[in-house]
Amino acid sequence: MLDILLRRQQGPFLVDLALVAGSGTTALFGPSGSGKSSVINMVAGLSRPDSGHVTVEGKVLFDSSAKVDVSPERRRLGYVFQDARLFPHLSVHGNLTFGMNRLAAAERRIGFESVVEVLGIGHLLDRRPAKLSGGEKQRVAIGRALLASPRILLMDEPLAALDSSRKAELLPFIAKLSRQFAIPILYVSHSMDEVLRLADTLVLMDDGKAAAVGAVEELLSRTDLRPLTGRYEAGAVVRATIAGHDSTYGDTMLAFAGGVLQVGKTDLPVGTKVRVRIHARDVAIAVDPPSRISMRNALPTVVKSVTPAEDWLVDVMLECGGSDIWAQITASAQASLALRPGMHVTALIKAATITRGDLAEQ
Ligand SMILES: Nc1ncnc2c1ncn2[C@@H]1O[C@H](COP(=O)(O)OP(=O)(O)OP(=O)(O)O)[C@@H](O)[C@H]1O
Question: Measured from the CB, is residue 37 less than 6 Å from ligand 1?
Answer without folding.
Answer: yes
